[in-house]
Structure formats: structure tokens, C-alpha cells
Amino acid sequence: MTLFPQNRRRVAITGIGAISPVGNTAADTWASLLAGRSGIGKISRFDPTGCPVQIAGEVKNFDPAASLPHPLYPRGSAGDAVTCILPPKDVKKFGRFTHLGIGAALEAYADSGLDAHRAAIAPERFAVNLGVGMGGLPETLAMYDTLKSGGYRRISAFYILQTAPNILAGQLAILLDLKGANMSVASACATSGHALGEAARSIQRGDADVVIAGGAEAVVTNLAIGAFAQMRALSTRNDDPERASRPYDKDRDGFVLAEGSVVFVLEELELAKKRGARIYAELSGYGATADAHHISMLAPGAEGSRRAMRLALGDAGISADQVGYVSAHATSTPGGDGEEAAAIAAVFADARDCLHVSGVKSMTGHLLGAAGAMGAFAAVRAIHDGLIPPTINLQEADSECAAFGLDFTPNKAVAKRVNYSLANSFGFGGTNASLVFSRV
């Protein structure tokens, strides 16, 4: 049984942008994932001396004022062109998560080809839903130091703009003349999964024709690393960073904090077809649930996660045995991986022999508010390209995970036609999001 009528509007994915620890474009990120390249290394954004965790997934060599490959004209040829991510004079106004998010969003918009068709789309029908999990933590720390050393008069007038989570969505709307609903989801590590799902809902309902959706995060700081370390959530494999994130492996010891942004253009399917757009996949199913069990641990057997996956499958109107790939949340934590594996095994109990599962956090680390979108990126590209990215560093699955008989796609990408894929993202507070993508 489906949750919504089958004659509802359908949602195509027509553009993708990514800035990640493994690549500063979607193409480079995807190439790295397929090659099994890790983006984890020694922390460079602060001096980690004395910290028990000294590794992270950092975005490298990113210039927030970099020129775009081609100018964009969202207001038509008579309007001002968007020629760079942010003008140099504006970079200091915004936080790093906004820098990364604007960069990925402009790439997705350019990739969609919509710029040449803006005259046919009213700005009021073009919406934004870009989530951020923790906001401008680096900027808060820096400004607090300024306050302590220099007093109130030294506080920057830009501080609020640097830290407020919704500024990313608002600034993108200003750049691209997007006058539809403008919002920022914040639901921990499920943030961008929810952003994509809710964006799809708005198109299905008829509230918007196009939505730019996804997430961004940039909190590689001494405070965030130290706090997660105090929770005993992070890997301490400081001497071997590229092998630190190892979902399902018997020697995993925690996740690796990372930063980045992944953004999609979601578009009403018939509109996309009419303009001859390249369609990567259809976002056809969405399920959102709460565990109502524990603030930082999955429910036993990942009960809420199971419901999210089943809701997403029902929403898409498909059965579990039609899914060829699950892009798992798979953080590399000792407890979480096993619980999610149990949930996947239960939902796909009759389809394990034809199912691949993988965790791209093994390469990127955990992007927190952008993690759901990164998982969706793998699921979408698997359909479009017929390639499934691996779970690297999986030398020997622990007995709990191995007992479920799932194929975790260890260490090497797999060529496979995928008609339907599913992406999971779960977060502190017991919040869950599952998305189903379909071949068009």
C-alpha cells in the first residue's frame, strides 16, 4: 500500500553538486568513491596536539571566491551574472558551511541546465531546502576568543550571518533569484535526508516546480572533535587515518568527523522531460520516523530505521526485492553498524541474494548534516552509472554484522544495473530518514 496517490507529481533529479573530503566537485567525488580513495587525514584546521583524536575528513584546497566554470544568468541576460561562488568582499560575511553549501549548490544548478530555461520558470515556483546540522561552530569559537581578548566592540557585525543555519539557503536564493519557500532543516545526521524528502513532498503537492535541496556542514574544530571524543564516538586510529573509518569491520572503533556539502536539483518530472533535461534518477519514496528510545543510540534492532525504510518503499510503490543497492548510514561505530545491518536484513529478508549494501563514510568520514545527501549521492549515481561504490577498510566483518548474510561490497566497486536504490540517514535524538530512488 502506498501513502500517496499514484497520480501525484513525480520528482526528477536533474543536477548534483558536491564538495567533500574526496573531491571538490561531484565528478571528482564520485571518481574517488568508485576508486575507494579515502579523504581522511591528520587535522589541519586547528592544532590537535593533546587531543585524543587527531584525524578528520577535511575539504582541501577549496576557495570560496573561486570563479565558476561558466557564468550563470538566473535573472536573464539583462541581469547581473553570477561568476564566482562568492565575491571576495563577501567571503568574510559568511561561515564555512555557507561557503561549502553555496559552492555545491551553484554546481548543482549549473549541472541541471536550468539557467538557460529560467524564463519559463517563475521565481516563486523555485524553492530551497538546505539543511545544516550544527551551524557555524568554527565562527562561534573564533568570535568568543575575540570577545575575551578585545571586548564587545571587537565582535564582528557579520557574526550572526556567519552562524545562523538558514543563511545558506537565504544567500542562495538571493544569488539565483529563488522566491519559493526557503528553509533549513536541522535534524542532526538525518538533516539532509529530511531536506531531500521534504523538498520532494513540496513538488509532489504542487507547492513548487523546482527545489534545490541537500545539506552542508563544517565543524572540524577542537570543540566538536573533543566533545565527540569525550562521548567515545570517534575513531582514535591517529597513526593510520585512511583506515580509520571501517564500517562493519571487526576492528572499527568509531566514526571520523568530516565536513562538506552535497546538493541536488529536484524538478517536477514532466517539466524536466519537456526541456530535455538529463535525469539522473527519480526520488520516488520517502520515509521519516522517530525511535523514541534513546538520545544517541539506535533502538534495539533499529526498529525506527526499519519503519523508515518500509515507509519509503511503500511510498515508492515497490517491494523490497526490487531494490538493488542500499547506501547505508554505516558510521563505523561498534553499535550502530550492527543495528542498521539488522534492520536492512529484516526489511530485505527475501532479497539478500540480489542486494548490495555499502557505506561511503568509509571514504568521506561522517559529514553530519550533509551525510544524508552524501548517501543519496551514492544511491543516485549507482542508478545512473550502473556502479556501486565500495565499503573500504572492510577486512573482516564482525560476527554480528556477518551473521545477517548481507553483501557489504568490500573494498572494490561493483558494476551492476540498479533500477531502485535506497539511502539511509539516522541522527541523534532518534530521528530517521530513508529515501528511495528509481530509474526513469
Mean pLDDT across residues: 96
Number of strands: 16
How many domains is the backbone divided into?
2
Shape assignment: globular
Major β-sheet profile: 10 strands, mixed
Pattern of helices and strands: EHEEEEHHEHHHEHEHEHEHEHEHHEHEEE
Helix content percent band: 25-40%
Structural class: alpha/beta
CATH first level of the largest domain: which class?
A: Alpha Beta
Unreliable spans are: none
Spatial gap, N to C terminus: 21 Å
Specify the CATH homologous superfamily of the largest domain.
Answer: Thiolase/Chalcone synthase
Total DSSP helices: 14
Based on CA atoms alone, the radius of gyration comes out at 20 Å
Task: Characterise the protein shown here.
This protein is an alpha/beta fold and 440 residues long. It folds into 2 domains: 11-274, Thiolase/Chalcone synthase (Peroxisomal Thiolase, Chain A, domain 1, 3-Layer(aba) Sandwich); 286-426, 3-Layer(aba) Sandwich (Peroxisomal Thiolase, Chain A, domain 1), CATH 3.40.47.10. 32% of the residues lie in helices and 20% in strands. It has 14 helices and 16 strands. The strands form 4 sheets. Strands 7-6-8-9-1-10-16-15-11-12 form a 10-stranded mixed β-sheet, sandwiched between helices. Strands 2-3 form a two-stranded antiparallel sheet. Helix 11 (336-347) links the parallel strand 11 (325-327) and strand 12 (356-358). Helix 3 packs parallel to helix 6. The model has no long low-confidence stretch (mean pLDDT 96).
